[in-house]
Amino acid sequence: MLKSKLTLRVGFDLDGVILYNPARIARPLIAQFKKIFLHKKKLGFYYPKSPFEKKLWSFFHRSSIFIAPGFSEIKKLTRQNKIKAYIITARFDFMKVDFQKWVKKNNIQQVFINCFHNQDDEQPHLLKEKMIKKLDLDIYVEDNWDIVQYLNKKFPDKKIYWIYNICDRANNYPYKFPTLQKAVDQIKKIT
């Protein structure tokens, strides 16, 4: 149940939520591969260690190039003081410079109260859990199904919105949306 507030506090993931990323379609396939063939049952994400891995990781994140439809509605909601919006991205600290350039280039600081990246290189789900608590968010919008499930268990009193993709759309979940626009439309209904 959402707290009674005049202004909702809403967090948004970056890659796959604010930024449309066509490569995200492979995420559920990779997750299934890890579970089936590598027997990875515990939630955990790989951290690139070598300079080559970090360059490759940064290159893949550059596929998040288009601001997703729905972003202009977020701008309107923040201007009308209906939501206080935050970006919480799990991008590791070695991608900080690219992230800050993107924020500056797109005047993101005019829309979001603050933009957080993973400066301590924490596991993404743990970073997001910590930030949801710290910012006392009412809603968090995420595209990674594993993280959505984790956060939903941790925060039964908050709404974790999920932007699904074609490969994992069959998963049953009450707050699932095909696009950022559809998630923002739902946020508008409750503001």
Our count of domains comes out at: 1
Mean pLDDT: 87
Rounded to an integer in angstroms, the radius of gyration calculated over CA atoms is: 16 Å
End-to-end CA span: 14 Å
Helix content: 25-40%
Alpha plus pi helix count = 7
Query: What structural class should be given to the helix and strand makeup?
Result: alpha/beta
Q: Which strand order does the major sheet show?
A: 5-4-1-6-7-8
Which regions are unreliable across 5 or more consecutive residues at pLDDT < 50?
none
Q: Judging by the overall fold, what is the CATH architecture?
A: 3-Layer(aba) Sandwich
CATH class: Alpha Beta
Share of β-strand residues: 15-25%
Number of strands: 8
> What is the fold-level CATH name, i.e. the topology?
Rossmann fold
- State the shape: globular
Question: What's this model, at a glance?
Answer:
With 191 residues, the protein is of the alpha/beta class. It has 7 helices and 8 strands. Helices cover 39% and strands 18% of the residues.
Characterize the structure shown.
This protein has about 190 residues and is an alpha/beta fold. It has one domain: 3-Layer(aba) Sandwich (Rossmann fold). Helices cover about 40% and strands about 20% of the residues. It has helices at about 25-35, 50-60, 70-80, 95-105, 125-135, 145-155, 180-190, and strands at about 10, 20, 65, 85-90, 115-120, 140, 160-165, 175. The strands form two sheets. Strands 5-4-1-6-7-8 form a six-stranded parallel β-sheet, sandwiched between helices. The protein has a two-stranded antiparallel ribbon with strand order 2-3. Helix 3 runs parallel beside helix 7 and helix 5 (about 125-135) packs across helix 6 (about 145-155). The model has no long low-confidence stretch (mean pLDDT about 85).
